[in-house]
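Protein data sheet
==================
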Amino acid sequence: MENKKAIKLIDKIVADLDKTGINKDSLIVDLKELREFALEEQIPLIVKVLRFTYEHIEENESFLIPIPDDEPIEEEEGVSADTSEVKDPVESLKYLISLTKSHKNKTNIADLREYRDALMAF
């Protein structure tokens, strides 16, 4: 994202995750605010991923989506949302939030799409 307030909010979210872990109430407020910045900048992928993320946290009281693999995924019958692979929900969520900083990076876009698909399939 290009907005300086959005970048500060991303840094705040990551710092809060380091300090307190997934504090559902304040985290959801911050994610909704970050989503507003993505709406202003017209970045539909980030808008959708952030909405799916806070809805997922509201529903599950945690973030149960693993960090995407580095290796390309072969197309199978959709994306598997296997929660047994989630070793650290906080690390996965921190990674997802950090991806939103550089949305023009091809690797970040690919990982954001994987998160989107995993959240949709969950």
Q: What stands out?
A: DSSP finds five helices and no strands in the chain. Residues 2 and 101 are 8 Å apart (CA to CA). The radius of gyration is 14 Å.
